[in-house]
Design a protein that fits this description.
Layout: E1 9-15, H1 23-43, E2 46-57, E3 62-73, H2 76-97, E4 99-107, E5 110-111, H3 128-140
Antiparallel strand pairs: 1-4, 2-3, 2-4, 2-5
């Protein structure tokens, strides 16, 4: 094993089992995976350019799709948008073959403080939302916040209605 070598990608995956036939389950899983990956990137002070979506189908075959961003980032919103676009391209194949696993990885990594700037040479500050979410999770634990897509709709979900 070599020491002093930084990892080449940061990723996560989730087995869906029979639930992979439901597009809402695949979407919610994707959101959770992207949040986990980008949080790990920010913790490691890394940014990346290439977003890869990995799928395993019901017949155990696999597929991977990738998109390279213009600028390296660890922002959840940007990585999620790229991953969702890749998932939309794969929807017909998922509908035809079923999906048993979804995974997301970000590669082409670099140190967050040594990012090659693009015109107009304005350094982008980390997203305030991502920083706030990371602070809440650090203080109260990883389960303190969950993606909105993971909520179930039904009688157990109450939303307060304020008077006008």
């Amino acid at each position: 094993m070599r020491t002093g070598v930084r990892r080449r990608s940061i990723g996560a995956q989730r087995a869906l089992g029979r639930r992979g036939d439901d597009p809402a389950v695949v979407d919610a899983s994707l959101v959770g995976l992207v949040e986990r990956v980008t949080r790990r990137m920010r913790d490691a002070d890394r940014v990346g350019r290439t977003v890869t979506l990995r799928l395993r189908f019901a017949d155990f075959s696999r597929a991977a799709r990738a998109h390279t961003l213009d600028q390296a980032t660890a922002e959840t919103g940007i990585v999620l948008a790229a991953a969702q676009a890749l998932l939309e391209e794969a929807r017909p194949e998922i509908a035809a073959r079923g999906c048993t696993l979804v995974g997301v990885a970000v590669s082409n990594l670099a140190a967050a403080d040594v990012v090659q700037l693009t015109l107009p040479f304005a350094r982008r500050a980390p997203a305030d939302l991502d920083g706030a979410l990371d602070a809440v999770r650090q203080r109260f634990g990883g389960g303190a916040l969950t993606p909105g897509g993971g909520c179930t709709h039904g009688e157990g979900l109450l939303v307060p209605v304020l008077p006008e």
